[in-house]
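User: Predict the complex with magnesium ion.
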Amino acid sequence: MSESGTQNTVVTALAAIGRPVVNGFAGVGSAAIFAGRTIRRGLTPPYYPTRLIEQFFQIGWLSIPVVALTAIFTGAALAQQIYTGGSRFNAQSTVPAVVVIGMVRELGPVLTGLMVAGRVSSAMAAELGTMRVTEQIDAMRTLRTDPYRYLIAPRLFAAIIAMPLLVCLANILGIFGGYLLSTAKLGFNPANYLSMTADILEADDIVMSLVKAAVFGFFIALSGCYAGLSASGGAAGVGRATTNAVVAAFVTILAANLVLTVAAFG
Amino acid sequence: MAETPKLALDHVAKRFGSNQVLRDVTLSVAPGESLAIIGGSGSGKSVMLKCILGLVEPDAGTIRVDGEDMTAMRAADRERIRTKFGMLFQGGALFDSLPVWRNVTFSLTQGRMLRKREMRDIARENLERVNLGGDVLDLYPAELSGGMQKRVALARAIAPRPEIIFFDEPTTGLDPIRASVINDLIVELVEDLGVTAVTITHDMKSARRVAHRVAMLYEGEIIWTGPVDTLEDCGNPHVERFVKGVAQPAE
Ligand SMILES: Nc1ncnc2c1ncn2[C@@H]1O[C@H](COP(=O)(O)OP(=O)(O)OP(=O)(O)O)[C@@H](O)[C@H]1O
Ligand SMILES: [Mg+2]
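Assistant: Here is the predicted structure with magnesium ion placed in the model:
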């Protein structure tokens, strides 16, 4: 291969890596502008309380079954794992402590975030994407109504409010799942288990759990709304927007989780 | 000094990627005038209207509404100017999650559930003007035929009594009787209410009925404009071919 041929190959390879990276950063930039605009406009009138309640119902209430089941199953599985793992060095008694720390600090917020992202980000992207490609969003702007206030802000704010409540529920049910398995199968004394759980749990853990939840709620709605509003090109475009929304929500949730965890406990 | 035009586009250009849709559009519309825009499919007629409404950002040129330059404006002022407009979208663009009556009154309530009885009355009145009965008030857009959707969209565009109305192919997809009702409505809006109208149409009969003046968009420029009765023998070969429906000879 000639020298310039090699160079071209290298350049092509670098471009192949560089392009998505540059596009990624450009996407982050415009998503940030999008978020800023939504918050600024959402906090100034006209307000749409009915839209907010509607979205709160969609995001919060309708997510309860899936969040509850996920939390119970995970809490119970966690208890079994800690018990079996802990028995290797005679530490079976740490089950209540590890379950509560694991659920409240980490699994409660993250699993709830991922489950809600799967349900909600995709639905938001599909609905807003369809409105985008059928020009309903353009039409709204000609009808004296700001889509940021009417469509986006209620979704963003509802997700930020709903997620901490769902995570509270997930934490409680996760601990409860661990408790059920531990008392029914692993031979823990119910009263002891609960008092050990209460002893180990600190206010900071709960605060951090709820902060994470609110941040994840923000990313869930932002991913869904941004992907939906940037959709173009008919049904296929809406399909792509839906996929992008879920991927973006998952990645941002996991990255934010790492950042927050290291910042708070590192 | 001449009267300020209601709308004035000056050297407007817009491109999507490598597709230069509008090259150099210069056009003005007087208050109370009814202008028809003709041009081949994909020539950029809809894009031109969206540029005027600020839904699409032009790359170059100025757009003045009552003498105020939209392109140099802050977002809030632009929203204020936009309230002078009503737009019938080519595809209807009805809100499919809302019933017909809430679609029609959307601009009056800004999407909120206010003064229900009054709003339903207003919706009924506006639907009547497009020849639709009160039986459609509670239907959803998906339950309507294509032509009915178009007429609901038209009722929605006229409901806030805008000063300037854009009609993007108002009669496409309507039977001749319904089409003539819509043509009459446009004429009535212009003559009785003093509305300024810009109508995109492929239907020469409709153009002759509703417009005072016609402009033809071709390859990103307005290549001809003149009174509607000179359309037939205007001396411009592109316009004459278009009006008579003759295919362009191969190059
Ligand atoms: N949002 C957009 N992104 C990219 N390209 C676009 C966009 N909107 C329009 N175009 C392109 O601009 C060109 C003009 O489109 P436009 O809808 O204005 O045509 P038109 O003159 O209204 O045609 P028709 O009579 O068929 O409605 C087309 O080539 C279209 O592909
Ligand atoms: Mg068009």
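Residues B 16, 19, 21, 39, 41-47, 90 surround adenosine-5'-triphosphate (ligand 1) (CB under 6 Å).
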